[in-house]
Amino acid sequence: MSGLVRKSFDSPEETRPFEDGKGRVDVVDLGAGSVGRGVFEPGWKWSDHVKPIAKTDSCQAAHIGYCLSGRMVVVMDDGERLEFGPGDLMITPPGHDAWVVGDEACVLIDWQGFADYAKR
């Protein structure tokens, strides 16, 4: 990769809406990989709003991300559970469910798991 690259989530290469209008993933390709911004609306839950798209029992994407706003609970298939909020960095291995907590949208930037996330 040579030279500078500038992209914006205001004009992503792709936007993938979740079921029932509960949010979306905006994806930008930086050449060296994709970065996603997930907007998860209040009431969003992976098992309700992405599972029908992914067609897996739990989310099989690995995530490395940063929470900009809102709150999200992630529960691993083995029961381990953690809540993330603004300013938190996260590493989430494959095999989890997740949902928004409260009445504010959760906005996350993800450097690993959104390349194929919620792709129809």
UniProtKB/TrEMBL annotation:
<protein>
    <submittedName>
        <fullName>Cupin domain-containing protein</fullName>
    </submittedName>
</protein>
<dbReference type="InterPro" id="IPR014710">
    <property type="entry name" value="RmlC-like_jellyroll"/>
</dbReference>
<feature type="region of interest" description="Disordered">
    <location>
        <begin position="1"/>
        <end position="22"/>
    </location>
</feature>
<dbReference type="InterPro" id="IPR013096">
    <property type="entry name" value="Cupin_2"/>
</dbReference>
<dbReference type="InterPro" id="IPR011051">
    <property type="entry name" value="RmlC_Cupin_sf"/>
</dbReference>
<feature type="compositionally biased region" description="Basic and acidic residues">
    <location>
        <begin position="7"/>
        <end position="22"/>
    </location>
</feature>
<feature type="domain" description="Cupin type-2">
    <location>
        <begin position="63"/>
        <end position="110"/>
    </location>
</feature>
<dbReference type="Pfam" id="PF07883">
    <property type="entry name" value="Cupin_2"/>
</dbReference>
